Amino acid sequence: MTQAAIRTDSSEPMITMTGVGKWYGAFQALHNVDITVSRGEKIVLCGPSGSGKSTLIRCINHLEAYQEGEIHVGGMLLGHQAKTIDAVRREVGMVFQQFNLFPHLTVLQNCMLAPVKALGLSKAEAEQRARHLLERVKISEQAEKYPAQLSGGQQQRVAIARALCMRPKVMLFDEPTSALDPEMVKEVLDTMIALADEGMTMICVTHEMGFARQVADRVIFMASGSIVEEAPPAEFFSNPQHERTRKFLGEILGRH
Amino acid sequence: MNYTLDFTPVIDGLPDLLAACFGTFTLAIFGMLLATVIGIGGVVLRQSPLKPVRWAVIGFVEIIRNTPFLVQIFFIYFALPLAGIRLDPTPTAIIALGINGGAYAIEIIRGGVQSIPKGQMEAGLALGLHKAQVFRLIILKPALRAIYPSLTSQFVLLTLSTSIASAISAYELTSVSQRIESDSFRSFEVYFTVTAFYLVISWVMMRIFALFSARYFSYPVK
Amino acid sequence: MGRDEFLFLLIGLKWTVALSIVAFICGGIAGLAVALARTSGIAALERITAAYIAVFQGTPLLMQLFVVYYGLALIGIRMDAWAAVSVGLTLHASAYLGEIWRGSIEAVPRGQTEAAKALALRYISRMKDVVLPQAIRISLPATIGFLVQLIKGTSLASIVGFTELTRAGNIISNQIFQPITVFGIVGVLYFLMCCPLTIYGAHLERKFATSAH
Known about the structure:
By secondary structure, chain A is of the alpha/beta class. Chain A has helices at 53-60, 82-91, 107-117, 123-136, 152-164, 182-197, 209-215, 233-238, 243-255; strands at 15-24, 27-37, 42-46, 68-73, 76-77, 92-95, 170-174, 201-205, 218-223, 226-231. In chain A, 38% of the residues lie in helices and 23% in strands. Chain A is globular. Chain C contains nine helices and no strands. Chains B and C meet through helix 2, helix 3, helix 6 and helix 8 of B and helix 3, helix 6, helix 8 and helix 9 of C.
């Protein structure tokens, strides 16, 4: 099988988005978005609801089609042909707000499914990989359980392991802690921090500003489908440039 | 009112009737299998990007659901030979049952597929699986579980409508009971007993469905 | 197929319509009684009606028609096929409608009954003025769905020997040896009766589903 593969030349950026625009019918969800993400970089995307931040990361693995501009992942142009979409999805992991574990499969089977079916790994290889990663997210003793038997925090850690089983070069997190009970947020954030420490390229849509401070190389603030401001966290929190950013930070930090 | 019930012909015919129950089970089980295949295939075609394909499925479903099974079985019985297909009444009846049950199954299973959260499809796609793989590996089983009660009550109806296959002389319980009735003229006794047989048959079917569910859908849900 | 044959089918159609209406109305009246008995709170009554429903839902309509047809003759009631089939379909409809309406009555929130009791309404008024109006609305899509089943079910009267639409089709088909044409037309006639009802039922279901949110 010949397939377009992502190049691993470390000098070029992992993701570049140039002039990306996206419409839902007449409504424009993204306006002329430019972002460059280097290898190993950690980006936190924040903004009020409806600002387009989820839409933006969902464009990177083409869960949403974009109509304008270009997205390159690992040097490869993410067009709209099935072949490049598949190639990109095999190398970009995603973690969802609602976990989206498959209810009819055990934790282990959830992790093995895509490596076997999409990468063509043998079951033994996939299982070895899955058990290793379940151990890394500290949930290996739950491998034979079904999702409904786990807490929200455990489910989300499984979802992270499931995505990692594809050995992705980039991980996208779409509000990974928003659906969790407060006491479970930390275990998921700790898992994400550990992943960041290992050098994974990460884009996280989250309102966990403590996480942003600790992990992010850059924080990007979006509103109404556009990037309003981006800066390293220290600068972003201490000296926001725009009025909308200040207002947003006031609300989000005031709440915590 | 000087009629005395006489079950002797029924008792004499018991071996034939019991054997015919297997005929009924055969029709029902193969009919259900065919209906399931048509149901799943129809749901896939119903999502086709091609409008004519989608409309063909909708048309098929509505034609079958809005005409009597008896008329359908006559139509198929006479149409198959014209299409060059010569079959005995029993396989013909299975085809008719499968087509009829399949139309209902399409609508029921489609409801199940629609009940699966969009995130399941997205998670599968994000993992690099193709749409067809996502449907087969991720969507189908939870979708079937969601509509299993409606699907199985439809299949009980299918089991009961095997009796209509007697109209084309397929081998099953009703046609055998009609033969015993016309030999003995003990109409009420024969049909009363056979009605009780059917009650047992539909009870057995429901037990089978429950056992299957306990095995196949054993995973816990919240 | 000529004009005379088609007219013969239309006469059959008339009997199919008549049979459907009689069975639906009589079955509806009996079905309401079944539903009320099934939700009466009186254990014996509930158990008897539950068994009644289970028997009719667990046996083929064709057998029900046979048993009624020959059973009535047995107890000395001489009836022509029309009357016997009407009785059979009425009983069949009463069980199915009874079960549909039981579900609808139980779907009306308990608080409605309790509020009516607190207002000192007696059983009849509680049902007639409070519970049933809501239950009927809930049951409408399923009731119409069953009406379609019933219209299709009348075709089985042909096997008992009553000349409605399907049997008229059989007779014509045997005369002119064009079964595909004849049963095609018969199918179209059934479709024209059932499809508007199906569409209406689906429309109501959508309407109720959206207004429920």
